[in-house]
């Protein structure tokens, strides 16, 4: 690892040590979307400026809800947040499809799949995977 990478890791590690409350606590995560938003609202009040969750944090929370807590309805809230912030959010849009499928909401899943398939930056493999996913959703 290069010296600059070590310095960066040490710097970010020090910041995380100084501001541990910026991480989403496990209990807050389990409580769900509204608790996570309340966590960031508390941080904003504490530090005196608007602190928004990062897209990776919301994505991770959505994956946790979808995969580990098996709560697709709650996962949709996190993925929707990311999509509202960045409509081209590929991973969040792919996983919102999975959440809608788990809920049996075929039309919502197809809507997001069609948006993904209209992208011109997809690799051949991504396009094939999405096309297969769309075929499976159509069979629901």
What's the domain count? 1
The unreliable regions are none
Biggest β-sheet description: none
Strand proportion, as a percent range, falls in under 5%
SSE string, helix = H, strand = E? HHHHHHHH
End-to-end CA span = 49 Å
Rg over CA atoms, rounded to whole Å, is 18 Å
Tally of contiguous helical segments: 8
Class from helix and strand fractions:
mainly alpha
**What is the name of the CATH superfamily?**
Tetratricopeptide repeat domain
Give the CA-based shape.
elongated
Indicate the percent of residues in helices.
Answer: over 70%
Please name the CATH topology: Serine Threonine Protein Phosphatase 5, Tetratricopeptide repeat
Q: What is the CATH architecture descriptor?
A: Alpha Horseshoe
User: How many E strands?
Assistant: 0
pLDDT averaged residue by residue: 87
The CATH C-level name is Mainly Alpha
What can be said about this structure in brief?
It comes from Pseudoalteromonas fuliginea. The chain has helices at residues 3-18, 26-31, 33-47, 55-68, 72-85, 90-102, 106-117, 124-138.
